[in-house]
Amino acid sequence: MNPEILVLFTVGTSASGKSTWAQDLGTRFPHLQMEILERDQLRREQHSKSRGTPFSWSDWDVAQESEIQTQWLERVRDLLSADVLILADTHIDPEQLAREAALLCEMGVREMAVQYFPAQPLVELIRKDQGRAYPVGAAVLREQIQRLQPEDAYWQALEAAAASCAKLKTEIVASGVPA
């Protein structure tokens, strides 16, 4: 693991530009070893492997989400040697973001940040979504806009996870148990 790795959480609706931003960042900083991890890519791979058919959101079996989470954790562990790891997912739920940040903290990650993509007009997101290979549809976009919170909520989630991790490490040290 790179002890100085920076993990960036993207936060925003589908079709807001998160993946494009992540790919562009790698191009702008070629001297950094940058890795991008997207749950949607894991879902596409899992769908292809289990069904043998092209991916579509209408065919996605949500019962496979626990397997996706397992794969995500394995991939995160494999990618912690990078300089920058971009977790390019929606991360609309601050509590879920806090849980992921706490996991990363337990793995030894010290530097985490949020790249926030503010809500865009629904009609604009629908237009962008229709041009994507795997559109999620207007109903999903509408629901994501409604659930998206102000940027501060996501930074607070990161800070809470870091504080919780620091407290746990202090308790471990105080108890004499090796970390």
What's this, in brief?
The chain has 179 residues and is an alpha/beta fold.
Question: Which properties best describe this structure?
Answer:
single chain; 7 helices; four-stranded parallel sheet; 179 residues; globular; alpha/beta; 4 strands
Describe the structure.
The protein has 179 residues and is α/β, with parallel strands linked by helices. Helices cover 54% and strands 11% of the residues. It has a four-stranded parallel beta sheet with strand order 2-3-1-4, with helices on both faces. The two termini are 16 Å apart.
List the helices and strands and how they pair.
Elements: E1 6-11, H1 18-28, E2 34-37, H2 39-51, H3 65-79, E3 84-87, H4 94-106, E4 111-116, H5 122-130, H6 138-147, H7 151-175
Parallel strand pairs: 1-3, 1-4, 2-3
Helix pairs in contact: 2-3, 4-7, 5-6
Strand content: 5-15%
- The pLDDT mean sits at 91
Number of E strands: 4
The Cα radius of gyration reads: 17 Å
How far do the termini sit from each other? 16 Å
H/E element order: EHEHHEHEHHH
Please work out how many helical segments DSSP would assign: 7
* Residue windows where pLDDT falls under 50 for at least 5 positions: none
Q: Roughly what percent helix?
A: 40-55%
Order of strands in the sheet with most strands:
2-3-1-4
For the largest beta-sheet, the strand count, sense and barrel status come to:
4 strands, parallel
Instruction: Quickly give the structural class.
Output: alpha/beta
Shape: globular
